[in-house]
Amino acid sequence: MKAHKDLDHFFAPASVAVVGATPNKAKGGYSIIANMLESFGGPVYPVNPGRTEINGEKCYASLRDLQGKVELAVVFVPASQVPGVLEDGAAAGIKAAVIESGGFAETGEEGRELQDRCLRIAREGGMRLWGPNCTGLVNTDPLIFTPFIRFPDLRTRLQRGNLGIIAQSGMMAAGFMMQYLLTGFFKVSKACAIGNKMDVDEVEVLAYLADDPNTEAVVAYLESIGDGRAFVEVARRMAGAKPLVVLKGGRYEESARAALSHTASIAGSDEVIEGALRQAGVLRVHDFQDLMDLGKAFSLNPRPFGAASAEGNRIAVVTVSGGGGVVASDLARDNGLSIPPLREETLEKLRRVFPPWMAPGNPVDIWPAIEQNGFDAFSGSIEAVLADPGIDGIVLLTFASRIIGAFPFEELGEKMRRAGKPMVSWVFGDARFFDTYRDSMESIGAPVYTTVRSCVKALAAYLHFGRWSRLEAGEPVSG
Amino acid sequence: MKAHKDLDHFFAPASVAVVGATPNKAKGGYSIIANMLESFGGPVYPVNPGRTEINGEKCYASLRDLQGKVELAVVFVPASQVPGVLEDGAAAGIKAAVIESGGFAETGEEGRELQDRCLRIAREGGMRLWGPNCTGLVNTDPLIFTPFIRFPDLRTRLQRGNLGIIAQSGMMAAGFMMQYLLTGFFKVSKACAIGNKMDVDEVEVLAYLADDPNTEAVVAYLESIGDGRAFVEVARRMAGAKPLVVLKGGRYEESARAALSHTASIAGSDEVIEGALRQAGVLRVHDFQDLMDLGKAFSLNPRPFGAASAEGNRIAVVTVSGGGGVVASDLARDNGLSIPPLREETLEKLRRVFPPWMAPGNPVDIWPAIEQNGFDAFSGSIEAVLADPGIDGIVLLTFASRIIGAFPFEELGEKMRRAGKPMVSWVFGDARFFDTYRDSMESIGAPVYTTVRSCVKALAAYLHFGRWSRLEAGEPVSG
Fold it and tell me: Are A192 and A165 in contact (CB under 8 A)?
């Protein structure tokens, strides 16, 4: 494995040059330099032979004019000019370059040769290369943001977070970035768009994130895994300690062929990949939304929950809708979860808040109890279920309405913390109150989703990670 | 099968009484009378022995005071009072009653006896009963809205639509209603929450919707199917003509047991149900979101698309992200779709807008072409693929950004109409532009989703319905 400490040159450089910087706001080179000047903590040098000044900053003709001053170069010029830029960089003593330009191996033989030339120059000059054909990287601490997409007010908008993101495709990486920047869907430590990965690859980045104290969980969208053995080695090291979720496309022959043409990857046999990921405790998903949903779940709760039952997959469904409870139970079973009967002492507690005609069970249909006893019945029922020694986690189905603000969220959070069990929630009903509910629930560590499926998948992921953590600790896990 | 024409008494009564009407805004009886007074076209009579006036309207002590004046009674009083109300109604000559109150068969033996008593009174008095334990029904033409949830400005907000909804669980029906009322997710013709269905049941309602000219597609959430043979008979009648999507919970033994306790249903064996639904061409889904997603798809396009290929399941993925194309292809394969190579004449057209280094294929990765030729390349590529005689439909993956407004939506719509092929779209990227993109695309008949999975499922549903329509027409379908 490569010395991934080199990656500090990318994630925490002392100084940065932007080659291809321009004052033309329609160009990516403008976005990069404008973002950098606004957000980067150290010196930022625009480089463009056709300009003398950009956004009030002196512009340099070449990296050679910045001898010894630059640690990292961000390069966004036509592919044919990149080798020259790298020669300049090597001569100027830069340590690393993020090449965002396209037009390399993904465009055929000529581009592949160009890529090889870049790599030779870098190796001879002692430089590490990131990309090409990508949006580069983001670090939220210390702040660096290389993508060629303009984000004003990065310093205030880019909040520190604990989730590491790896995305091979630049467009997808940009999509992720938009999501978390604009919606606060999750908070990121580092986001890495690795593109053609001619030098720095998914294994090295993953190893870096595995050791990064700011990164507590990782989601990765990969189109290919170059060195499967090395990848699994890092994944195994993370198993049970730092959650890792992977979306790897190309599961069928025809889609694998499509992956091959894109980002110039060689796709391995999916059966091998599937087996390797499973043995390394990696959670595999098949849609971008699933990757983001689990990113949110693990960003909220990166550390494993202790399992109550020996099997570690036994859940309760607490629901305001009997029908919702049935559908959630089906989906839970689809996802390898079990919905066991509750213990007698739990049922006894539930009977106290349930109407006499209603026998409590699992799913716990709490609507009649709420109708009779108000929100006290709601939180009382959840408390009883959380205390059940045979239950590992809870799916909560809630109807959002005007009265949701009166719900005792903090009290519930305290009960969850004491029980040490995960809870996830589906919300439906009056969409005007979804945000209030979601913000309140997520502030107490319970992620909220708007499909039952995502909700159940998130709980299954928590419990999967919990079981791996017990396995790694040498504790027995049955079932 | 019962004479479902009786249901006109519910969906289009000449006059309505609300029994349990109250001026107390915290009560459901207020919501019902307030909604009715604002929205119903004919006379509305509040009934409550404890009041003389409600919202400025004279209040009657009993249905007996309204001899011959009332066609439909909406009843929301404690369960024990319902038989008396029905006796009054029978004496006053009412034709039908929606009983929204809970406390019947779902609460045990005593409630079941109460329910039987109600049924006897109704049969003797020549009345039809809807419910109990439900929110009743909605018709958008003529307008009637019985749920005990307050919706001000119903007359303007409740738009006419073409989608019929059946939901056994009241809470879920309410959730659906919120969705469509507040977000315009889809437009409804009739929404039916059938609750304990002691008289009017899912079969009769489905038969009514099957014959209703305002209803062009139906989505149903069912917890039980009482008379499977009759249900399948109606479904078979709809097959290939009016799309029918069903969510039927209780697929496992433990969840089926839970369904049994809720709404007092007897759940049949899921294997039998699965087989029967499949043979009747019904689309079955497993999550509420899927039901709503397909409701939107069929509300936009209720009539079958003609298939181009013999198999009728061959699609193209047109994408701005190579990686997105790979993931969409995987999910398409998961859903029984095929992603065949494009015809030579199609590839030739694509080559004209693609950069020389890029060989077009399926998925059609159009980003490099857009970079080179702008949005013309985008719509040109879609046009070429729509014209391919081996392609039945398109999944379009788009990145939303500021420039999306410049996209030639109407031109695209014209091309889709001419080709007679379905297109569905996933949108990602800058969420601030999702609404613009969705509204524009859906105005030309292409539903937009924010997960690739829903997008692929919607296209699979269109093509499934198309194949059934050809089968029903006696045309051959291979594969």
Answer: yes
What is the amino acid identity at position B154?
Answer: L
Q: Using a CB–CB cutoff of 8 Å, tell me whether B100 touches chain A.
A: no
Interface list for A 304-333 with B (CB within 8 A): 320-327, 329-331, 333
Residue A134 identity (one-letter amino acid): C
Would an 8 Å CB–CB cutoff place A287 in contact with chain B? yes
The CA distance from A63 to A86, in Å, is: 9
Sequence-distant (6+) residues with CB within 8 A of B473 are B240
Task: Write the residue in A288, A327, A363 that is nearest to B327 by C-beta.
Answer: A288
Nearest-angstrom CA–CA distance, B260 and B250: 9
Interchain contact, B361 vs A399, CB within 8 Å: no
Note the maximum CA span of chain A: 84
Which residues sit opposite A472 in a β-bridge?
none
**What are B435-478's pLDDT values in tens digits?**
999 999 999 999 999 899 999 999 999 999 999 999 888 887 76
Nearest CA in chain B to A430: B178
Residue of A nearest to B195 (CA): A323
Residues of chain A in contact with residue B107, where contact means CB-CB under 8 angstroms, are 355, 357-358
Q: For B430, name the nearest residue in chain A, comparing CA atoms only.
A: A178
| Candidates B179, B331, B361; nearest CB to A286 | B331
Q: Which residue is closest to A400 within chain B, CA to CA?
A: B175
pLDDT tens digits for range B92-124? 999 999 999 988 998 888 999 999 999 999 999
Interface of A with B in 10-69 (CB under 8 A): none
Residue with tokens 């001899």: B67
- What pLDDT shows up at residue B181? 64
Q: How many CB atoms lie within 10 A of CB B152?
A: 10
Topology at the third CATH level for domain B304-472: Rossmann fold (3.40.50)
Tell me which residue of A389, A336, A337 sits closest to A363, measured CA to CA: A337
| B114: contact with A, CB 8 A cutoff | no
Same fold, B4-299 and B304-472: yes
pLDDT of residue A337: 97
**Taking 60 as the threshold, does the pLDDT of residue A267 lie above it?**
no
B 143-172 → A contacts, CB under 8 A: 167-169, 171-172
What pLDDT sits at residue B180?
Answer: 67
CATH superfamily of A305-472: Succinyl-CoA synthetase domains (3.40.50.261)
Q: How far is B255 from chain A (nearest CA, A)?
A: 5
Domain locations along chain B: 4-299, 304-472
Q: What is the residue whose two structure tokens read 């708007």?
A: A450
Q: What is the pLDDT of residues A3-16, one digit of tens each?
A: 568 999 999 999 99
- Give how far the C-alpha of residue A153 lies from the chain's centroid of Cα atoms, to the nearest Å: 22
Cα separation values, A253 from A256, B329, B360, Å:
5, 10, 18
Task: Indicate the helix (H) or strand (E) that contains A10.
Answer: helix A8-11
- Say if residues A432 and A404 touch (Cβ distance below 8 Å): no
Which CATH fold topology does B4-299 show? Rossmann fold (3.40.50)
